Amino acid sequence: MFTAMARRWFGAPINDINCGMRAFSRDLYDRLELRSLGMEFANEMIIKASLMGARISEVPITLHPDGRKSHGPHLRTFRDGWRTLRFYLIFSPTWLFLIPGVLLILFGVLGMGVGLTGTTIGGLRFETNTLLFSSVAMLCGFQAIVFWALASVYAVYSGLLPRSRVYDAFFRWATLERVVVLGVIGFVAGGVLLGSVMVEWVGTSFGELEFSGTMRRTVPGATLTALGFQTMLSGFLASILGMDRR
C-alpha cells in the first residue's frame, strides 16, 4: 500500500519503498536534508528524492535471513504503519488538505443551490436545513484549502518540499491584492444579505420573521461573511510565511 501511494502521490519510480538496501551520493544526501528520526527515514529519502527529480533506479537483490535471535523484531505493525501514513500525509498537502477541501466546497455549493431553490429530488425536498449542512461543508472545505496554501508555503520556504506546478500556478494567481479584494467582495455580499434581514426585522418592530425566507438569506449571508473575513486574513498570513528572506 505504501509503495503504491508513493508511486501515485509522489511519482516515485520504485516497487518496494521499504527496502533498506540503498546506495546514494553524498551530494544528494546533503540536498535531501532528511529529518525523520524513526523508521519513516527510509520513506522520506525516496519521497524527497522523487520530488526533487533525482535519478532513481532499481536493481534486483536477494534477501537472506541474518540469523540473529538475540531479540525479537523491532517492527510494530500498527504503530509504525501509522507513523508512515502520517508522514505521507504531512508530505502531501494536496491529498491531506486540497482535495478534501475542494470536494467539501463542491458539496456545499450543490447543497446551497438545491436548498435555496427548494428542489425536490427522488421525493426528498431540500429546504433550510440543507443550507445549514451546506454552510458547514463550505466553511470546512475553505479552511482545508487555506491550510493547504499555508502548509505549502511553509514547506517550500523551509526546504521540506520543492515547488510544484500546482503551487506555482496557484500563487501566480492568488496574489495578496487579489485575495484581499476577493475577501472584501465576499464580506460585503454577506453583509448585504444579513443587512436586508436586519432591515426587515426593524420593519416588523423587532417582531417575528418568516422563518424559511429569512434563513434563505441569513445562512448564505453568514457563510459569505465568514468566508470573506477568513480569505482576507489568510491572504496576509500566507504573505507573511512566504516573505522573501535575504
Can you describe this structure in just a few lines?
It contains 9 helices and 2 strands. The chain has 246 residues and is mainly alpha-helical.
Protein model, in words:
By secondary structure, this protein is mainly α. It has two domains: about 1-55 and about 80-90, no CATH class; about 90-240, no CATH class. Helices cover about 65% and strands about 0% of the residues. A two-stranded antiparallel sheet has the order 1-2. A hairpin with a 2-residue loop joins β1 and β2 (about 125). The longest helix is centred in the C-terminal third of the chain and has 31 residues, at about 210-240. The model has no long low-confidence stretch (mean pLDDT about 85).
Keywords:
single chain; 246 residues; mainly alpha; 2 domains; two-stranded antiparallel sheet; 67% helix; elongated
Helix-strand blueprint:
Blueprint: H1 2-10, H2 26-32, H3 41-51, H4 77-90, H5 93-117, E1 120-121, E2 124-125, H6 128-157, H7 165-173, H8 176-203, H9 211-241
Antiparallel strand pairs: 1-2
Helix pairs in contact: 5-6, 6-9, 8-9
Tally of helical segments? 9
Described by its quaternary structure, the protein is: single chain
Biggest pleated sheet: 2 strands, antiparallel
Q: What is the tally of beta strands?
A: 2
Element string (H = helix, E = strand): HHHHHEEHHHH
